[in-house]
Design brief:
single chain; 4-stranded antiparallel sheet
Length: 106
C-alpha cells in the first residue's frame, strides 16, 4: 500500500508554497517499522531531519535535490522536518531568503 503523507500537526512559520514531497510507505503487517521514500518535487534542495521524540533535537537524515529521492528506515510515530536549503549561487531560498520548514509524521 502506498500513502501520501502531508504535514499535519505543526504549522510552518514560512510555507514553501510549492514544496510537494511524496512519501511512499512500504507497510508491514504487524510491525511498526517502515521503509519510507521521500521524493522531492519542491523545485529546491531540501534537508530532512528526524525529530528526537524525547529531546526534540533535529537529527540530520540527508539532503535531497529537486527531483531526487531519499530512502529511509523509520517507525510509525516518527516525526520529520523538511527544510529548504539556500541556493549555493544566491545564498537565499526560493521563498525570498527566509528559511522555513514543514513537518510530517510516519
Amino acid at each position: 500500500m502506498n500513502l501520501l503523507l502531508v504535514p499535519h500537526k505543526y504549522q510552518s512559520m514560512i510555507s514553501f508554497g510549492t514544496v510537494l514531497l511524496s512519501i511512499l510507505l512500504n507497510l508491514a503487517a504487524a510491525s511498526t517499522d517502515r521503509d519510507i521514500q521521500i521524493i522531492n518535487h519542491s523545485g529546491a534542495k531540501v534537508a530532512i531531519h528526524w525529530i528526537h521524540p524525547q529531546t526534540g533535537d533535529m537529527v540530520a537524515q540527508g539532503e535531497v535535490l529537486n527531483g531526487a529521492t531519499l530512502n529511509l528506515n523509520s517507525f510509525v510515530g516518527h516525526e520529520f522536518e523538511v527544510r529548504e536549503l539556500p541556493s549555493k549561487r544566491t545564498g537565499v531560498c526560493s521563498g525570498g531568503g527566509t528559511l522555513g520548514g514543514d513537518y510530517f509524521k510516519v
